[in-house]
Write a structure and sequence with these properties.
This protein is of the alpha/beta class. Helix content is 55%, strand content 9%. It has an eight-stranded mixed sheet with strand order 3-2-4-1-5-6-7-8, with helices on both faces.
């Protein structure tokens, strides 16, 4: 989404870093480039003017220019202002004490409300809640059936009502939630191709009927600055609480996402990057600002890894993996957890310099599927002791998995490279240090039950990887 803007801003800031001292002329030249970069990204011109003026004022401060590292101070100022532009930590999402919580989704047709409704339900279900989806879009052909299908995919009930009156459907859905002990109701309302009076009146009527705890406007991040005008129209009539940016994985310039908070005063609550139900993430302004400036989002990566590492393994096994004594079963487990984290491309983008390391190429996500098929064609002994896989065994594995011997050889090479990368990331020290803190003397007659999460969750060291290491990680699944 922000690739072009990110490249431009990083280029400007890199030019400042190359100078030992900064003059007012250097600052002014950098501000011109930042202004052009934001305008080219389709950011609202008033927002651009305010942003650049704020950065210039702070960057021209005498303490900044006369400091030992003026360029670093300017980078910090740009980061702070960009974070402020995107929102604040006080805009975090929180459920109300009311049961059931009623969440209403509004927006134009095609913005992605129905898929966002599914993703919200999936998120709440994984958090231990019991959501109910409500199909209140009775106009778009097959909209109700689409929500029914999406709800079935994640095991969440969908209320259809009479399929005629959206207001009655919403009202009856709340009653249904109370009867069926559902604590969250998510209402998918109808949209139009553009803002019109009928749509606004219907949204107002549903709001009056169910008194939703929170109203979210779903916007297509690829519509650019036009999304700001739509958001202003909804804010005047429905007074929504926040924005959910859908399709953030698209190739638009991202100006709408940068402008909407400043122009409407409504915070971005969630962003959606991908088609999977798990691809909805809470929005953190500081993390997004760091990603735009090429600083990565290692904190978000670690949180995603911890959520994915739901399988516990014995401490001794974790130490074995950390010593790079991998088996193909371990390799399979790691690949499955990478899939849970959103795939290898998503993982690389969250690392410092990850977007540049990824470049314009595309990672072959289907490589994970091929890996599982090939490993499944190995015997138990081969998975446990990869060294025994000779030429004849490779031919048999290739025939059993429907691939070529070359592809089997590539997997084995990737396996060896992964072992080297684990050593390079310093996992041995991480696991061994934790091991030393454990009681090494289990009580007599009892097995040591010390366990730890899979080492895939220990991703803090990824933040220290060099661009060459990042490129190597990408090449493993190219």
């Amino acid at each position: 989404m922000f690739e072009n803007l990110s490249d431009r801003l990083q280029e400007v800031l890199s030019g400042l870093r190359s100078k030992g001292r900064l003059s007012e002329a250097d600052i002014e030249a950098a501000m011109r480039e930042i202004r052009l970069a934001l305008l080219e990204a389709d950011v609202n011109f008033r927002v651009v003017r305010s942003f650049v003026d704020a950065v210039r004022e702070k960057a021209l401060d005498a303490e900044v220019l006369e400091s030992l590292t003026p360029a670093q101070n300017v980078v910090r100022i740009v980061l702070d202002q960009l974070t402020q532009l995107l929102g604040s930590d006080q805009d975090r999402f929180a459920l109300s004490p009311r049961i059931p919580n009623v969440i209403m989704l509004v927006g134009l047709q095609g913005a992605g409300k129905t898929t966002v409704a599914q993703k919200l339900a999936y998120r709440f279900k994984n958090q231990g809640h019991s959501p109910l989806l409500v199909a209140a879009d009775v106009y778009r052909p097959a909209a109700v059936d689409q929500l029914q299908t999406l709800g079935g995919e994640i095991g969440v009930s969908v209320f259809r009502g009479d399929g005629q009156d959206p207001v009655n459907i919403a009202r009856e859905a709340v009653t249904e939630a109370i009867d069926k002990l559902k604590n969250i109701v998510i209402i998918d309302t109808a949209g139009r191709l553009h803002v019109d009076e009928d749509m606004m009146a219907e949204a107002e009527a549903i709001k009056a009927a169910v008194n939703p705890d929170q109203i979210y406007m779903v916007v297509d991040a690829m519509t650019g600055q036009d999304v700001v005008n739509v958001a202003q129209a909804f804010a005047e009539r429905v007074d929504f609480d926040g924005v959910i940016m859908a399709k953030m994985d698209g190739d638009a310039r991202g100006g709408g996402a940068l402008s909407i908070r400043a122009v409407t005063g409504k915070p971005i609550k969630f962003i959606s990057e991908g088609e999977k139900p798990s691809s909805l993430d809470e929005f953190f302004p500081d993390r997004m600002a760091r990603r735009i400036l090429g600083m990565g989002d290692v904190v978000g990566l670690i949180e995603r890894a911890q959520a994915a590492a739901d399988e516990e393994i014995e401490l001794e096994e974790a130490e074995r993996i950390a010593r790079a004594e991998l088996t193909f079963d371990d390799f399979l487990m790691m690949n499955q957890q990478i899939r849970k984290m959103g795939g290898i491309a998503s993982l690389i983008k969250t690392l410092p310099g990850g977007d540049k390391a990824l470049g314009s190429g595309q990672v072959d996500e289907k490589a994970l599927d091929r890996m599982e098929v090939i490993i499944s064609s190995m015997t138990k002994a081969e998975r446990a002791k990869p060294a025994i896989i000779n030429g004849s065994r490779r031919s048999r594995i290739a025939a059993g998995s429907g691939v070529t011997v070359v592809q089997v050889n590539q997997l084995i090479k990737q396996f060896d490279e992964t072992r080297k990368m684990i050593k390079k990331m310093g996992m041995t020290e991480t696991v061994t240090a934790k091991s030393n803190r454990q009681n090494r003397r289990p009580k007599k007659g009892k097995k040591n039950r010390n366990k730890r999460k899979s080492p895939v969750a220990d991703l803090g060291a990824l933040g220290k990887m060099s661009p060459a290491d990042l490129k190597g990680l990408e090449d493993l699944l190219r």
